[in-house]
Automatic annotation (TrEMBL):
Pathway: Amino-acid biosynthesis; L-valine biosynthesis; L-valine from pyruvate: step 4/4; Amino-acid biosynthesis; L-isoleucine biosynthesis; L-isoleucine from 2-oxobutanoate: step 4/4; Amino-acid biosynthesis; L-leucine biosynthesis; L-leucine from 3-methyl-2-oxobutanoate: step 4/4. Acts on leucine, isoleucine and valine. This is Probable branched-chain-amino-acid aminotransferase. GO terms for biological process: amino acid biosynthetic process; branched-chain amino acid biosynthetic process. It comes from Aurantimonas manganoxydans (strain ATCC BAA-1229 / DSM 21871 / SI85-9A1). Pfam families: Aminotran_4.
Length: 283
């Protein structure tokens, strides 16, 4: 595989990053994951806008313009012959003597990108649905910034796995914030899609935004508000959204079936129309 590190395309075995990189020492970095379907990028513009926002919130310089980043994304797709999978991009505050204080503004940020070939569109889990375990949300209070501090989400996924589930939903004061690496949604008996409103408590998912718009255009009533774990367990349907899973039905929460315990009609339809729109608008 060819990866991109600070201005150069290199074989992954030859890629290096300083041991003083603040991403490594302080998790002082942000990232984006963009999906590739049929060799094309999905929702590239919105992902770059969110990257710019994450950088701004952390007062971190941008390593390249959106146009340059597009060229690098495409450069990796071509070099690796990527047809379906993900492009991971990470920006850190760069290498500097270890100090809690940020280094001088002219410190060069580090920019790393790599690809992961994966089956995404026809993932078997999309047909069967996934099982969720609830886990307390012990992350920091700025989850709207897409930082590389992913230790707690990683622990939450391991906890979910140890309880026989596929993924975790994070819960705070009885309320579902989001999934460990996705946004959480439910559908009520009258067909209303409920999803947590945007704030510092959750990541502003690019797929969440796209799906909410498609749902509204399709005549689904959408309510952006908090919902409790109890409400989710008693919902007619549940699903998660993310760049890599699109719309993924949830069929079980903490061992309790959601609705009929099979992927719901609204989740299945939203997956279909999301993928159709993704194919249409891919660049
Ligand atoms: N929430 C969290 C905590 C995430 O890590 C992700 C995926 N990066 C999402 C939500 C979904 O965001 P997106 O649709 O932009 O992939």
């Amino acid at each position: 595989r060819t990866v991109y590190v600070n201005g150069a395309y290199v074989p992954e075995e030859e890629a290096t990053i300083s041991v003083f990189d603040r991403g490594f020492l302080f998790a002082d970095g942000v990232y984006e994951v963009t999906t590739v379907l049929s060799g094309k990028l999905i929702d590239f513009g919105p992902h770059m806008k969110r990257l710019a926002r994450s950088l701004g919130e952390l007062d971190m310089p941008s390593p390249a313009s959106e146009e340059e980043l597009l060229t690098i994304h495409r450069g990796l797709v071509t070099r690796n012959g990527l047809n379906e999978g993900l492009i991971y991009m990470q920006v850190t505050r760069g290498a500097a003597d270890r100090d809690f204080m940020f280094p001088p503004k002219d410190t060069a940020p580090s920019l790393v990108l790599f690809t992961q070939a994966m089956v995404l569109r026809d993932k078997p889990a999309a047909r069967t649905g996934i099982r969720i375990a609830s886990v307390p949300d012990l992350r920091w209070a700025r989850r709207d910034i897409k930082t590389v501090q992913l230790l707690y989400p990683s622990m939450a996924k391991m906890e979910a796995k140890s309880r026989g589930a596929d993924d975790a939903w994070l819960v705070e004061d009885g309320i579902v914030t989001e999934g460990s690496s996705n946004n959480a949604h439910i559908v009520t008996a009258d067909g209303t899609l409920i999803t947590r409103d945007l704030s510092h408590s959750i990541l502003h998912g690019i797929t969440r935004a796209a799906v909410l718009k498609l749902a509204a255009d399709d005549g689904v009533k959408v309510e952006e508000r908090s919902f409790t774990l109890e409400e989710a367990k008693n919902a007619s349907e549940a699903f998660v959204t993310s760049a890599s899973t699109f719309v993924m039905p949830v069929v079980e929460i903490d061992g309790q079936p959601v609705g009929t315990g099979t992927p719901g009609p609204i989740a299945r339809r939203l997956r279909e129309i999301y993928l159709a729109e993704a194919d249409r608008s891919a660049i």
